[in-house]
Amino acid sequence: MTSPVIVVGAGPVGLGAALELSRFGVRSVVLEQHQGATRHPKTRIISARTVEIARGWGTSVPVAADRRPSVALAIGVAVSLRDAMLTRLPAPASRLIDRLARSRDLANDD
Prior knowledge:
Number of domains: 2
Strand order of the largest sheet: 1-2
């Protein structure tokens, strides 16, 4: 079997690349070093663009409405990567997530 494209890694990016290639009629082969799926998550945040791309594949991205990010979204400010953080600012997305969660909680109170 020959393929014009070899995709290395069957994680989200590798599988996504293989799907996109197939949509345009390009044959590919995916190589993965592990025999099975990992038990650890490969992503924590799914952007709106990722959902749009998944729709193009004919699938949807499962979104857990009850879950919040497992890490606090913030922007750290430091002089360099080796120096201590001077301050930590909440990322705009974290405020949006909190606002959406509150509106969902209010809707469920009815």
